Amino acid sequence: MILPTLNERQNVVVLIEQIARSNILPKATKVIVVDDGSTDGTREVLESLSHRYQNLKTLHRDEKKNLPSAIYYGVKASSTEYVAWMDADLSMPLEALERMWRKVQQGTPIVIGSRFISGGGFKGIDFSSRNSLVKLRKNLKETKESFMAVVLSRAFNYSLRLLSFSEVLDVTSGFIIIRRKLVKAEWFDCQYGEYFLNVVFAISNYPLKFVEVPYVNLPRTFGHSKTGSTLFELVSRGIPYIKLAMRLSCKRILRKVSSAA
Known about the structure:
The chain has a single domain (2-260), classed as Spore Coat Polysaccharide Biosynthesis Protein SpsA, Chain A (Alpha-Beta Complex), CATH 3.90.550. It is 43% helix and 12% strand. The protein is built from 8 helices and 7 strands. A 4-stranded mixed beta sheet has the order 4-6-5-7, covered by helices on one side. It has a 3-stranded parallel beta sheet with strand order 1-2-3, sandwiched between helices.
């Protein structure tokens, strides 16, 4: 289990304790926290927790800090047959990870946590329900989450899926369990969450079974989102996603042309 962190002191403690108490995840589950120079006391808290949990390993980085490289840094430090990674901000419930692990036990080598299949939801809301946007605004009222960011993120995921011709519905998930030997370094040569488009593109071309497991993404309780909340921040963050989706779309078309020739 790889947890990339940046100033998630309050959240990561809760998540690590939840993993340690889980009755479904293997007791030998190793938690690798990759901390990218947190300044809120995350490092000190993790050092304290490492004395309590033998399976907890903390890696501190002060250079080349970004989400994709932090994840791959954790993958390289792992030695288990399967690796999983998820956000450390408690937006991805542990119960969803446990359901994903059951799929692995049933023989599925790649399992993606998905907000956009039946049974999934975004920031505590199932968007297939009536008045979902009204419920969403009410749900986020007492949090630090941006209503605009949530709505745009959902629409953005849908656009990226169409642009990249993806079979996976949640192309910006960032929540996955996968055989470690399948993970490639080139997937993570990105700036932020767009790396997951590379993951989706790769697994769509594997002759291996994969499945999406629904989960309801939860609003952030502590700390601040790294994605941004203003329109300018969201647009700036989204440009690399669009560029990568277009490149992958071209690759997919070229493959089809070449296989038909």
